[in-house]
Specification:
The protein is built from 16 helices and 19 strands. The protein is of the alpha/beta class and 448 residues long. The chain folds into 2 domains: 4-61 and 370-420, Urease, subunit C, domain 1; 63-357, Alpha-Beta Barrel (TIM Barrel), CATH 3.20.20. The strands form 2 sheets. Strands 6, 7, 8, 9, 10, 11, 12, 13, 14 and 15 form a 10-stranded parallel β-sheet that branches. Strands 1, 2, 3, 4, 5, 16, 17, 18 and 19 form a 9-stranded mixed β-sheet that branches. The longest helix is centred in the last third of the chain and has 23 residues, at 425-447.
């Protein structure tokens, strides 16, 4: 009698990402949300409730982005031609202060829809200061694997009153959210403490965030060393460099992911390496905000773990892991030559390496038995992926989000034939437009 499975991904070019340079024609078999088998060649006579025909396709682990802001999705295409600090003060902070709960939910659903349709199955997400239950509820319903936390802000030049928090209340709210959501949806949802950055958090808030995270075993995330004016202001206020200051408040360590790291010197990299602090490289956002180009090859040489993330829709303006891979695989050639970052290294930054960065290496990031069945199937017959060749080169330098055919999270098909099935696309579209109209009206009233 043939064995029975819940899902059979059949006949694709499997790129398991267990090690670099490995691929083969085979099948992925799924049972109870986990990978039961990965076969070289056909699995033979098996029975499955659902079958995805992957002939001619690339079959990869679900992609992992280590820094996104889904709550900002409604501001897309409305915060352009600004550098970071002006972008925050003139557009992003007024927008977040103008969001209500329905707007937070609509933005999250829009962001998660785009991510899933682009093959991203796991995100480390950064919320705003309020209504963060709505983000987790959307992630739970839509099936994405989500590590997330409310933003903390209690000081700052140009911060709207609606975003400035009482320090202790901010920490208490995060603790309540974490206790409610960490480990929910069968472990698919996790809490990650998220102070905005050094310029919008008091020292007490930053040390409190570090204590809160470590008391509960949660990850820590913040933004760091993205913009030269940011660094100058941190030094003016604290008398220290940004990374040095973050270390002084407990915001370095193997449980910390810093977004950006554009402006790091040797001493900064030494601190990050010695403490095991990770970096999320966000090249698309760094270019658009004219922040600079992070020296990823120097980070890798220093032994720093580096992931990739699209950041937010208003500063990119897409949430595509493929866009970030293409940039990460080419930008650094200008400074370091044509072999600056190997395509397999780039692909690992959104699979195996990213899983390690987020402490999920026992769950996702590779395709082998026992791992969660997070899988993405790419159309290998798309023009930019033909005629063939090394899969990492094809993905990093040829693929786009539009080439995603199927996305699977924990064995559940959430995107089928390029169409979102985890939510109603028509409803997501309608709600996003209605919520955007409402928030822009409130923004206009706020700034006038």
């Amino acid at each position: 009698m043939s064995e029975s499975y819940d899902l059979w991904v059949r006949g694709g070019t499997v790129v398991p990402m267990v090690k670099d340079g490995e691929w083969f024609t085979g099948d992925v078999l799924v049972r109870q949300g986990r990978i039961a088998a990965v076969t070289r060649g056909s699995a033979g006579e098996v029975r499955a409730d659902e079958v995805l025909d992957a002939e001619g396709c690339l079959v990869l682990p679900g992609l992992i982005q280590s820094h996104v802001h889904v709550v900002q999705s409604l501001l897309r295409h409305n915060a352009d031609n600004l550098e970071l600090l002006d972008w925050l003060k003139r557009r992003t902070w007024p927008y977040e202060a103008s969001l209500d709960g329905d707007g937070v939910e609509a933005a999250a659903r829009l962001g998660f829809a785009e991510l899933l349709c682009g093959g991203t199955t796991t995100v480390l997400d950064f919320g705003t200061t309020h209504d963060h239950d709505r983000v987790f509820a959307a992630a739970e319903a839509m099936g994405i694997r989500c590590l997330s936390g409310k933003t903390h802000m209690d000081v700052g030049d140009g911060v709207p009153a609606g975003l400035l928090e009482d320090t202790e209340r901010s920490l208490a709210e995060a603790e309540e959210l974490g206790r409610r959501w960490h480990g929910a949806a069968g472990g698919r949802l996790r809490y990650a403490v998220a102070p905005r950055f050094a310029l919008s958090c008091s020292r007490r808030l930053l040390t409190g965030c570090a204590e809160l995270a470590r008391d509960n075993g949660w990850l820590l995330q913040t933004h760091a060393s993205e913009n030269r004016n940011e660094l100058a202001e941190v030094r003016r206020r604290t008398g220290m460099g940004n990374i040095e200051y973050l270390q002084s408040v407990g915001m370095t360590g193997p449980d910390v992911i810093l977004a950006h790291g554009v402006h790091l010197d040797d001493a900064d990299r030494e601190i990050l390496s010695a403490t095991g602090t990770g970096i999320c490289h966000c090249p698309g956002a760094n270019l658009k905000l004219a922040s600079g180009i992070a020296d990823v090859p120097a980070m890798l040489r220093a032994g720093i773990t580096v992931g990739l993330g699209a950041d937010g829709a208003p500063c990119n303006n897409r949430l595509s892991a493929f866009h970030e891979m293409a940039l990460a695989g080419t930008l650094h050639n200008v400074r370091h030559g044509p072999k600056a970052v190997n395509p397999w290294t780039v692909l690992a930054m959104v699979t195996r390496t990213a899983a390690r960065l987020l402490h999920l290496e026992e769950t996702v990031g590779t395709l082998h038995p026992g791992m969660a069945a997070d899988v993405v199937v790419l159309d290998g017959n798309a023009w930019p992926l033909l005629p063939g060749g090394d899969p990492a080169v094809r993905v990093v330098h040829g693929a786009s989000a539009c080439h995603v055919l199927h996305t699977v999270v924990s064995g559940r098909i959430v995107v089928h034939d390029g169409i979102l099935v985890a939510d109603d696309p028509v409803e997501v579209t309608r709600r996003s437009r209605e919520a955007a109209d409402a928030v822009f009206q409130r923004m206009e009233e706020l700034v006038t």
